[in-house]
Amino acid sequence: MTDNRRIDPYDPTDGHRQVLASIFWPVDADSCFSDKVSYMPPATAKAYGQEAQKMGLSNDTFKSVEIEVCAVSTSPKNKSRCHAKKKRFPIAIFSSGSGNSRLIYNAMARSIASFGNVVVLIDHPYDAIIVEFPDGTVVEDGNMPEDTESLEKATQAQIFSKGLNKPFMLLGRPKHSSEDATWVEFYKNLKGPKFELAVKGTVHRSFTDYPQLISALDLPEAAKKEAGHLFGSVEGQVLENLISETVTGFMKICFGDGGSKQIEKVSDDIIVLTGTRLP
């Protein structure tokens, strides 16, 4: 998508602001068939292959990874059936963190969508380490200023000064709030329903597809040990389900459809989740 009215301040050529999106939506199992597609396009797979190489894996690792999807039949009969079952779903806009490509969250988005949500993954050129467009155009190496913390503080300042009366959830690693004072100050200024959850055994980069990818790959023991330091110790499928259930419960709260009990049910599982602070 291109906004022809805005210049991207981080584009050295003064191009218009663009974002690239992937959309995941719930589909009835009886209206589609299982299919597999490439997890990442070539240039993005190559960029993430360099990280895989640091773990002792081939730099071609991401080129061979596929993700299973539900391919919808385009037959007139199926179109008619889908139209008859037309439903409305809540929408989650998912913006990646730490300069990651939106594609390293594909499996997570698919899982959240399977709980009855539409999930839109967004890539911001010059923010993500690489953005690869369908025509093969590639924007590499973020052009964001080094002091990105100042941008975060500018965003947080509005909450600090005015507060926020909307539902808000913080989901992260253990001890994050005790090591990052901004989380504590931010949380104090949330006036609506609020939740702070910490998943045992996670680190900052656990909240990507890496745990799932590591589970799916036949890694040597040395690589598994290294992966644990980088991406946490929670098994990929367990973490994916936990995140999906928690996010779905929170979205129900946002749309006035309950959800508190669903979050509390997950947070009662002390083997996985700790540190809940309910209002």
TrEMBL record:
Assigned keywords, A-Z: Hydrolase, Lipid degradation, Lipid metabolism
EC number: 3.1.1.47
A molecular function GO annotation: 1-alkyl-2-acetylglycerophosphocholine esterase activity
Domain of life per record: Eukaryota
Signal peptide: none
UniProt-listed GO biological process terms: lipid catabolic process
PANTHER family in UniProt: PAF ACETYLHYDROLASE FAMILY PROTEIN, PLATELET-ACTIVATING FACTOR ACETYLHYDROLASE
Coiled coil: none
Name of the protein this chain belongs to: 1-alkyl-2-acetylglycerophosphocholine esterase
